[in-house]
Design brief:
Elements lengths: L24 H24 L3 H27 L2 E7 L5 E7 L10 H27 L3 H26 L4 H27 L12
Antiparallel strand pairs: 1-2
Helix pairs in contact: 1-2, 1-3, 2-4, 3-4
Length: 208
């Protein structure tokens, strides 16, 4: 589903533009606090051998709150993007990716934008590294926790990247275009080399 361009799109943000470099300091704090807390709890519980059940429940709660907060609040206010899913009357699932319109996009703070995207990408990368460490260390039960955190943080990253691209199918189309271009280039190079290749000349046979 492409970005909604019609006039009845739900508005983003407040009516009055906040002042200062951080226009939403409390929102920025909550954008960081849940995901940082989940990572800290995992690292300390894993290093110092605390109870697995308590760590599991705590981390799952933190990453779940982080997922909901980033998806519904911080992305909308910090970068003017929003994504969600709904089921129509026929039971079909639809994904909607939306961006703040025109002049309203100027309400975002460059500092908040950098914080949002840096943490949005960095934490899935960190969880991916921790997942590999847990697997190679044969700590499979801890790998389950990491996989849950990676799935939730990765879902938000994927959703907002789709919003940023502007169309839900733009990523797929870009990959298709890139692949088609590489194939065409390879075929053209092969044909050119075939015609440019000089046929081998037989050496004249020497007579005795």
């Amino acid at each position: 589903v492409p970005l909604l361009d019609n006039d009845d799109t739900l508005g983003f943000g407040e009516e009055d533009e906040p002042k200062g470099k951080l226009k939403h300091p409390v929102v920025t704090l909550f954008h960081l606090i849940f995901r940082v807390s989940a990572l800290v709890v995992y690292l300390f519980c894993g290093w110092y051998g605390s109870g697995f059940i308590g760590a599991f429940v705590t981390i799952v709660l933190l990453v779940s709150m982080d997922f909901w907060t980033v998806k519904n609040i911080t992305g909308r206010l910090m970068v003017g993007l929003r994504w969600w899913n709904y089921i129509d009357d026929e039971g079909k699932s639809h994904w909607v990716f939306e961006a703040r319109k025109g002049g309203l996009q100027g309400r975002v703070s460059p500092v908040e934008v950098r914080v949002f995207w840096a943490t949005l990408v960095a934490f899935p990368v960190l969880w991916s590294i921790l997942f590999l460490i847990a697997i190679f260390s044969l700590k499979f039960k801890w790998a389950v926790i990491v996989l849950i955190a990676l799935t939730l943080s990765g879902s938000n990253m994927y959703g907002y990247i789709r919003c940023k691209l502007g169309k839900s199918d733009s990523l797929t189309e870009s990959m298709k275009s890139m692949a088609t271009g590489l194939v065409q280039k390879q075929m053209l190079g092969s044909v050119t080399n075939m015609f440019a290749r000089t046929p081998p000349t037989n050496a004249p046979s020497s007579t005795v």
